[in-house]
Structures are given as C-alpha cells and as structure tokens.
Amino acid sequence: MKKMKNTMIKILVLSAIFSFASCSVTSGSHSHSSNGKVKRVPPGQAKKMNGDKSAKKYAPGQNK
User: Fold this and answer.
1) Are 47 and 54 in contact (CB under 8 A)?
2) DSSP-assigned letter for residue 37
3) Which of 38, 43, 44, 45 fits as disulfide partner to 59, beta carbons 3.0 to 4.6 Å?
C-alpha cells in the first residue's frame, strides 16, 4: 500500500511539473504582431512591382 502511495505521489508531481513547463513554453512562444491591421503596399510601390506606368489603379480613391 505504501509503495502504491509513493508511486501516485511521484506521478502527481511529474504531471504538475510537465503542466507548468508546458504553460511557460506556450506563453513565451507568441510573436509580436501588429494591431491586426494589414499593411498595404503604397500605390507607387505596387506600380513598380507590376511594371505599370501609372499607379492610378492601385490607389484606393482612383477607381473609375
């Protein structure tokens, strides 16, 4: 009976250690991100990337 009690205590202690270790690992693995906003490429830069002559179709207020 005493051996079973010692085994149960060891299992309990080991499970507590593993649970605390996993909590500290997961909370430390978050990367820094922005506020959830998507950073758009400026119209002139999008024009350069696509090789166009005008940036008008990449500017949000210039749609006709």
Assistant:
1) yes
2) -
3) 43
Task: Give the residue from 36, 39, 45, 42 showing the smallest Cα distance to 60.
Answer: 42
Tell me the per-residue pLDDT of 7-62, one tens digit each, with 9 for 90 and over: 999 999 998 888 877 765 544 555 655 566 777 888 888 888 888 888 888 887 76
Cα 48 from Cα 32, distance rounded (Å): 30
- Residue 63 covered by a domain: no
* CA–CA gap between residue 47 and residue 59 (Å, rounded): 10
Q: Identify whether 2 is part of a domain.
A: yes
- Classify residue 33: in a domain, yes or no: yes
Q: Which domain holds residue 33?
A: 1-58
Asked if residue 64 is part of any domain, the answer here is no
Number of structural domains (the chain) is 1
